[in-house]
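This week, look over our next protein:
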Amino acid sequence: NAEYMGKFMKKWISIVSSVCAASSLALSVYVLWKRRACGNKTKHFFRNMHRTRQLGRINPASTAFFLCDVQERFRELIFGMPGVIHVGKIMVQACNIFDIPVFVTEQYPKALGHTVPEIDLQGAQAVAKTKFSMLVPDVLQKFEAAKKKTVVISGIESHVCVQQTCLELLALGVEVHILVDGVSSQRKVDRHAALSRMQRAGAFLTTSESVIMELAQSSDHPRFKAISALLKEKRPDSGLDNVLYSSL
């Protein structure tokens, strides 16, 4: 009996071991397959998301416009200021056509004055600030309530207020488009460095005309005549175009 029980136990242990080994192998194969399947799905998801973000498409429903500190005190100090003013002017008018919310800030207006009179804010309320970024509580609260995914920025100075606003928006997951014909600084080198840094951080560099045309999408737009009239307005010879390509 003892010998029989010994042989039985050995055979039973052998069978259990074989079953466990087979189960372990099956589990390993399943886990490997699952990892590959999920990995591929994850890779495809992030690849597709990356491609979508790379396109940087703009549409009125998801876009807001930020006008940063285009104030009277800076008129004689900023390189290419007439161009910055012109772009701010036509962009606010375009936003009115496309029903896009406009956010405006003024840096310490008691000392630096208010937004230049050439730009009709058309009901938008300028928010006074001392912080360099435009994302002060009043602006951030209204922007979050608007639930926009894309922000187009124009204003000054490129390397300070515009750049800090851009980086904060990118950190929040907002897609940012910088109007290269509508941003500047006192010194050209600061403007160049800011455009380069913002682009490397993930912002899209574009122009006011490109954005307006993309918002319109077609010459069949019901307000295309008004849109076309905006773009036909004579642009001031601000000098920004002469230094644009070295910044890109």
About this structure: The mean pLDDT is 86. The first strand starts at residue 63 and ends at 68.
